[in-house]
Amino acid sequence: MLGVNVKTNNYNKPWLDNAIKRNDIIKIATEPTYNNLYRINNITGENELSGFGREFEYLRSYGYTYDPVTKSMIK
To answer: Which domain of life is it from (predicted)?
Structure first.
């Protein structure tokens, strides 16, 4: 699962699951860097995946990789 974020689970995950099933190329507007894949949890002070980071890792778990030339996640 992508995490506890309701928006991610209700909207983004089903969209990603459908794209994965079709082996879609997924364009992303944000370059995946450490600073936008992770964030500091204000309660625990621990580093954790951001919403974007969870989606990025979810795609990677299904065999997608980031192509910096096309700014796309491809299988």
So the answer is: Bacteria
